[in-house]
Amino acid sequence: MIKSLTFYFLLFLFLTPKLFAQGNYGGGVDDQNLHFGFNFQYVNSEYKIQKIPSWRAPFLEGGIQVTDSLNSIRSIPNPGFGIGFVTDLYITPNLNLRFTPSLIFADRIIDYQFKDGMSRDQSGVQSPSGFTRRTVQSTMVEFPVGIKLKSDRRNNFRAYLLAGAKYGIDVASSKKAQDAGEIAINKFLKNKKGILSYEVAIGFDLYFEFFKLSPEIKLSNSVNSILKRDDTPYASPIEKLFLRNFVFSLYFE
């Protein structure tokens, strides 16, 4: 995943015209104490799973065995996209404070492999052969705040590092995971609605005559487990569930 993002990132830089030309104004954003913009994001979401010691054990409901024992639990990286706004506050020539609220559409996937090889499909989701797939359908409203540490400008090029935190609110998953009255084997995997994460990123500011374009690669990890506890075959084997996102963004300012 990281190799793919890096390839497209370097390819973009190679194809950018007039990158090393002199004197592009960049829309004058570096001369403003406060400026605004927007962004487009490609998001790849996956879970980091911590299992309980007895995670392989069959699931019991009322003393009755519901599932066979587990062979594996795996998270499948899943692509999504996002759009957002940029508010950038000048602090020093090499330091800015950034607030980039965004709307992110990125579902999350876990596959369970039971010893009996049964596939128990979630409504609207088909499981791979031999696996039971649970998808958390998510629409996040995110509020990231970060510190942008910039190099000195060289012609129309500037590199930067970014570190910060964000709080996200899932406005969709709880509505799409209503399973009251369902038997345990047909229930959903559920996540918490509010997610706090830390972020680190690397990017480049490319100056054109009327705007500044900034391609960026970012890694985001949830601070705490986002698993919503539930007595199901899908939540019970998991001790903690962390969300990890790889994000490629294009910022226009």
3D structure, described in words:
The chain is mainly β and 253 residues long. 6% of the residues lie in helices and 52% in strands. The chain has one helix at residues 2-15, and strands at 34-51, 60-61, 64-65, 70-76, 78-92, 95-99, 102-105, 108-114, 132-136, 139-150, 157-170, 194-207, 212-222, 238-252. Strands 1, 5, 6, 7, 10, 11, 12, 13 and 14 form a nine-stranded antiparallel β-sheet that branches. A three-stranded antiparallel β-sheet has the order 4-8-9, with no helix packed on it. The chain has a two-stranded antiparallel sheet with strand order 2-3. The relative contact order is 0.22.
In short:
By secondary structure, this protein is mainly beta. The chain has one helix spanning 2-15; strands at 34-51, 60-61, 64-65, 70-76, 78-92, 95-99, 102-105, 108-114, 132-136, 139-150, 157-170, 194-207, 212-222, 238-252.
CATH class: Mainly Beta
Helix coverage percent of residues?
under 10%
Give the rounded overall mean pLDDT. 88
Instruction: Tell me the fraction of residues in β-strands, as a range.
Output: over 45%
How are helices and strands ordered from N to C? HEEEEEEEEEEEEEE
* Termini gap: 27 Å
CATH architecture: Beta Barrel
Structural class: mainly beta
Rg calc: 22 Å
Total strand segments: 14
Which regions contain 5 or more consecutive residues with pLDDT less than 50? none
Counted up, domains total 1
The total of helices stands at: 1
Largest β sheet strand count, sense and barrel closure: 9 strands, antiparallel
CATH fold-level assignment: Lipocalin
Task: Give the overall shape, derived from the CA principal axes.
Answer: elongated
